[in-house]
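Internal tracking record. Fields below are filled automatically when a chain is submitted to the structure queue. Please do not edit lines marked as system-generated. If the sequence contains nonstandard residues, flag them in the REMARKS field before resubmitting.
Queue: standard
Priority: normal
Entity type: single polypeptide chain
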Amino acid sequence: MTETASNLPRLLGEAKRWFDDALFTGMEAAGERPVTVAQAAVFSVLPAEGCTISEIARRIGVRRQTVHQAVHGLIGMGLLEQIPDPASARNRLVRTTAEGARVHRRAQATLTVIEDVLAQRIGAASTGELRRLLSLPWGEPPRVQVPPGDT
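SYSTEM-GENERATED OUTPUT FOLLOWS
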């Protein structure tokens, strides 16, 4: 049986796992408490001024309940807090604590080192081109249908 070429979503997923593994290993080596992939995703989209759990879920592309669980775990670790939303009495904003900001800065510095390692391995030009290509606007996801004979 021959192995088929990996599709692009699989390759992107494997690349994401490579970064996640390196980040989590680096943070643990620095003495930081471990977080889950979902908790790290919250930090990756959380603006400095904070936002609602619903907005975080929209930015990540997961259910609100998933984010709620991740956020409350991070609140328990002292990395996030919830405050009343000054624009709406019905909402609460999630934002980083001082400790959360410190950990986030360390994670960002760790990611910079990881990107440098990637540049050493595949070349700085390739790493720059990868960043450029992934930064291009893709537009809305297409709504496609495979013709019946192609399945």
